[in-house]
Each structure stands twice: as structure tokens, then as C-alpha cells.
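Annex B. Sample input.
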Amino acid sequence: MNPSSKHPSQQPKAVLVTGAAKRLGREIALQFARQGWDVAVHYGRSAQEAAKTVEEIQGLGVKAEAFQADLSDEIQTNSLFKAVSEAFPHLECLVNSASIFEYDRSNSSIPLTGKSLQDHMQVNLTAPILLSQLMFEYQKSKPDNAVTFSSVPSVIQLLDQKLVNLNPDYLSYTLSKAALLTSVELLAMDFAPHLRVVGLAPGISLPSGNQTSEGFSKAHQMTPLGKSSTPEDVAKAAVFLAESSAITGTTLYVDGGQHLLPSTRDVMFKTN
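Annex B, continued. Sample output.
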């Protein structure tokens, strides 16, 4: 939809996308903008990339602004939501895309440590839950609190197809995302009818770590459909979920069927 094609009386909607300066978060932010949403772009350390993302979104004819916050810090996480909700009073969707993805495995030369687990839990689980709670309180406290079936605000938690295709690689990451997956149902029950909570689980969509282009290409094809998700696939699914007011408490797997092929190793180790 072209933003200029909106009916004049139609209230604009805004989305906060965490980790929106780069990679998948950036594509999600841009896709919302293409569909006429105003976008709050969160970033941690990538100020230059965030500014470029904001500039590109503004070029699509919608409002965009960048907000910096360290999601490992609860005070900064709370301040982030306060700043965004004040700048975008029409906030209708929160996409928790920011995450840590660092390798550890108990039976390896890089075993799980208390610090690695805590770091992953703080950014991948605690921050999304805190932001989700703030989003709920914000929606619940709106003066025009009437919820209509045609427009129920949403939280979208970015997950991973490996949660239904488990292997021991990236243990801290997997544990943090598994807990976030469980929270989808719990929060959906608790936040209704003011707010929907939905999971979105991509497959291998972008190269990770030291993965080569050739390795990524091979891994991307290791699905029943012969290809996994692209960033555009995931971004379009996020907008679909944000605009589908009957969907809550469930997770959409956008992975080319990757979760249907069990593996004892993370797919990136099968292609090096």
C-alpha cells in the first residue's frame, strides 16, 4: 500500500522494531514502512546504520525516528519504551527482533558459562518480556481503550525454527529463545483483549558468524522447498501478523519447511 493512498480519516499506525539498524530487523522495519506504518527504529551500537535506515524509511513518506538503548540494561529498556510511546502515540505493534547469537555448547571447547547464559537471557528474553509488559500497560491505559476485533495491537517475538528442530549447538541462544517461545502463549492469555502476542520463527535467512557465502547458500537450500526464508519473507510475515487481529498465542514458522528436517547439528556446521 502506498502511504499516500490512505483515507484522510484513517489514523496512522506505528511500530517499534528492536535491532532495526541492520540485518533482519532493518528489513522488517522497511517492510512496515512500505505498508504505510510509521517506524521507531531501535539500535544498540549501530548509530550510523540506524540513521541510514531512518532516512530510507522517511523516503517512503512515513515518519521514522531512531532510538538508542542497551537492552541488557533494564533502566535503558524502560526508557526506550517511554521515549517511543511519547514520540509515537499511535504505537500499535512491537517487534522484538534484537538478539544475541553467540556460540556455546556444553560438549565443546566453548562450553556454556554463567555469563554467556545470563547475557543471552537478558537480551533475548528479559528485554522482550519487559517491553511486552510496557506495551500492554500502554494499550490498556489508552483513553480510547475500546478494543475492536478489526484492530487489536500486537507484540511479535522473533524466534527460530530450531525450537522445533532441536540440536545442542548455540545452547545459551537456544535456551533463551525457548523460554521466549513459551512466553508467547502465557502473555497472550494475560494480555487479552488489549494486546495480541505472536511468535515468528524464521529459518536460515542471512549468513551468521564466520559462515561463508558458499556455506550459507548450501544451508539455505537444505529444506523441503529447496530454499529457506529470505529477509523479505520474514518481514512480510511480520506485517501480516501485525494486521491479523484474530491471531494470538501461536507461532508462525517461515522457513521453507526447515523445521521438518531434524538435525543433530546446527545447519551451518553441515555446510562448512
